Amino acid sequence: MTPPRFTRRHFTLAAGAAAATLAVPALGAEGRIEKPKLSLAVGGKAAFYYLPLTISEQLGYFKAEGLDVEISDFAGGAKSLQALVGGSADVVSGAYEHTINMQSKNQFIQSFVLMGRAPQIAMGVSTKALPHYKSLADLRGKKIGVSAPGSSTNMVANLVLTRAGIKSGDVSYVGVGTAAGALTALRSGQIDAMSNTDPVMTMLEQRGDVKIISDTRTLKGTQEVFGGPMPAACLYTNADFVKQNPNTCQALANAIVRGLKWLQTAGPSDIIKTVPEAYLLGDRALYLASFNKVREAIALDGMLPDEGARTALRALSSFEPSVKPEKIDLARTYTNEFARRAKDKFKA
Asked: 57 and 102: one domain?
């Protein structure tokens, strides 16, 4: 696949993402957690995209930090974002690029700990529906499955199609989730192609159900698709929540970074024993094959790289007219202060 040729288009990143520590309050000396019981929204928790969240939950790391976290699982990232905006969730486990998209709508949300350093999203065409597929032009007028419209899986599909001159209106996007429903949607012919996460995409790929045409499950593949490092899953919330609840955000970051450290040395059997049985989708071997494929995409220490934020802005502005680079202040979309403290605490 031809690597992207994003132009800088006279971006002015003002003080730059180096100022990402802007407006983060000092932690209370006593470390009192302002909101020990909180609600967290996620879109497709069974996906490897959110594995660090599941690990931190299953191993009791949130409880160890004095948190009672109620996790609500939605069909996709756009739905969990809606929960935050609507006030039914305090924090979201979701894609970093939503922080940029929302700022373009004059709403400020902020990432405070990174879980994924590559999107882990693959796009494939159905070998049954499109047996003679030759190029992206063949997808005009077709139905493309995504976790949920407006989610990061939708974003990757938009990016890939836009580079081939295909507008979002030239295809139909269908929300299929990130688990068994997604497998069924493709195999039954409800959709012609799909942009989704693992383990779903590896399962479809290994059984010959899809032909992969774009792949960000590895760092190399992400570089080819986005032209740079692309941050993925993170914990984000309203900027005001971060200011008002610094100790709560620190506790959440601590739990996630501790989970990230555990994942660095975890073996396949450790993963199988820790995740819920339902996440395996009935096939342990394929689940582990999927894990091996995306393992390097999992963040190491919770820190979001400045260049990654710039990559996300370039990517979004290339197909989303409402995202104008010169009007986006990246320093307000994320902070590394909490992750930095957690990294020091756990030696991640």
From this structure: yes
